[in-house]
Amino acid sequence: MLKLSIFKWVPDIVQGYQRDLRIRWALAEAGFQYEVMPKAISELKTPDYRKLQPFGQIPAFQDGDLTLFESGAILLHLAAKPGARIDLTGSEGLSKVTEWVVAALNSIEPFVMNMYEIELFHANEPWAEMKRPQMANMLNYRLKDLEAYLGDRSTLLKTFSVADIVMADILRGVENYGYLKRYPNLQRYLKACLARQSFKDSYDAQMAVYKLNEPSEKEKQRQMAAASPKAD
Predict the structure, then answer these.
(1) Which of 11, 47, 90, 111 sees the fewest Cβ atoms within 10 Å?
(2) Which tens digit of pLDDT belongs to each residue from 40-64?
(3) Domains within the chain, CATH numbers bracketed
């Protein structure tokens, strides 16, 4: 049985954007059955969980005796796993899909995350007003290159792959803040990826877990305090 460790609940502001969604999406595309292992925030610091994920993050993944962490590594494992309903390597082989998974995580995601964190958590802080133009320029530099590469493509490779899963999930992090407006190819690409039934089903499944496990207001405050960054 494939097992995926997920958050039992997260605050509303970040619901729907946790990285286990990438793995759910790939599993749905492949047609693999799996079991979710919901974790409270406090459980991520336990020795048992750190054996699965040394940094106490979500997701962690188990395939029999094999354990994996980091969404990119898990996606590439699933792409190479036999028995999938579709070829998650995009019909061009594991090396090419690896190239684009790494590109999404290294060349695009850091710049997206800089803007996402400013807009989501610090939008009204004075330092954000000074930092935003610089961060936006750096993001636009990368998005411009990706826009040019895509052209009229609807996928990064010849067919849909795990590279599209991770790239689309990254791009949607800044879509709502208008950072894709000047990039029609990226908008079209993202719309096509998110229109897939596997994405919709995976998103709904993630949100259903949060709704089922929504804590009281007092417990929410306790969990948020526990999640504050600090050295162990």
Answers:
(1) 47
(2) 988 999 999 999 999 999 999 999 9
(3) 2-87+198-227 (3.40.30.10), 94-195 (1.20.1050.10)
